[in-house]
Every structure is written in structure tokens, then in C-alpha cells.
Amino acid sequence: MEAKKTEQTWNPDRYERNAGFVADLGTPVFDLLAPVADEKILDLGCGHGKLTGKFADLGADVTGVDASPEQIAACHKLGLNARVLSGESLDYNGDFDAVFSNAALHWMQKADDVIAGVYRALKPGGRFVGEMGGGDNVKKVSDALLAALAQRRIDGNALWPWYFPTTDDYRGRLEKAGFRVDYMEMIDRPTPLPGDVSDWLDTFCESFLAAVPQSDRQDFLAQVRQALVPDLMDDNGQWTVDYVRLRFKAGKPE
Ligand code: BEZ
Prior knowledge:
With 254 residues, the chain is α/β, with parallel strands linked by helices. A seven-stranded mixed β-sheet has the order 3-2-1-4-5-7-6, with helices on both faces. The longest helix is centred in the last third of the chain and has 19 residues.
């Protein structure tokens, strides 16, 4: 069946309920950036602003950008400086000491456009520090989704909403854009969920779910969930998703 791609949408409350852990687990990449007061920082894909607020609390001059108007409205409610803007069309020019991104770059499939925009946004000597899904990130989940879609004659690959690069791929793109790569690591990080995997699917997999007729959606979700039980749910009912992180630090030469 011809699959039609649907844009992921974001609801800040649902996101906080089912994925509040994302910002908490962002501490290592926050520390890798080592922000200091008065620095000008761009938080790329800032979501509902949890980490953006941490930069502001430190006294940094932080701007958040995110493609989701709902997430930016949530940032404004926290009193943060934030703008609706896609990471694929950044329009800054030498404005920032650092660009930071946690768990957002894998939603931006035009990676070269993102990297070029970040490069332009930085001052000479500025740094780009981020963490994203890489390599076989959430592969068990995506395999189960693709299999359940294939059974319905839907080509899930045509609906694929993510970009999970290898280290070689991402390093190559950064260097081609002019960055010096100071650190890069692929890290397995199995991640316990706060609830059931179906809430996670509901929050993050809109592109796949929207291709399934509403009348079949509950059965589809139940089938994917069932396929994941042996690998991702323990005897106590705790779900753990197979996250893999690509963490990096790159510099724009002086
Ligand atoms: C991630 O953070 O790696 C991720 C989250 C939701 C869907 C896909 C990947």
C-alpha cells in the first residue's frame, strides 16, 4: 500500500508524562558542554524547555528553538527566550558561543542543512555539543513496527521519521562543513520507561501509527507491544527501550 508520511506532532504534557526522563538523562551532554554564565547558547530542538531552563538558571543567555509551536508555547510559559524554528533552516549568523542539542537531531533528516546552519550560527571558536539517537537506536522497537506494518502491506520504511547516523557518517558530515571533531562516541543506553511501551509508541511513533486505519490501530499497537514483551519487558512489567546515543563535541575553528 502507498504509505503517506505524517509529521510528528508534540504535546508538551504528554511528552512530559511519557518522556520526562529525556531531559534528566541529558545531564552528561549538558556537562560535556560545560556552559558558563553570560555565554550565548542556542538550544537546538529545545522541546518544552527543561534543559533550556537549566542554562538560564546558570546565568547563560540562552535561546531555544524548536519546530513545534506547542513546545515553544510551553517554553514561553516558563519565561524562556524561545522561537518556533526548524533546525533545518536556522537563520543565525555568528551569534552564539555554543550550540547544544539533546535528543532532537535524530528528528531532523536533512542533517547537512542542520550542520551548515549550526556552523553559521556559531562565532569563530564556538562549540557544537550534542547527543542524538545513532546506529541501531530503538532497533527492536522499529523492527517490530516495520513487521506489523508489512503484515498490513504498508511500507514502513517510506514512513521512517528518524535519522540515526553512525559515527563515521556524522563525523564526515561535521568535517565536511568545516568543524573539528573533538569527541565522538556511540553509547548503548538501555532506557527504562516510566510506563508502558504503548505510551512510548503513542508519543513518538505518529508517523507509523497514522498509516494504520483508526479501526485497526488498537490491534496494531497490541501486536507491536506483544512482539516486544520478550526483549524489552522484565518479569516485573518494567519496560526498557534499546536506546543508543551518539554523543559528540565539535569546534568551529577561530
Ligand atoms: C531517541 O531519543 O532516541 C528517540 C526517541 C523517540 C523515538 C525515536 C528515538
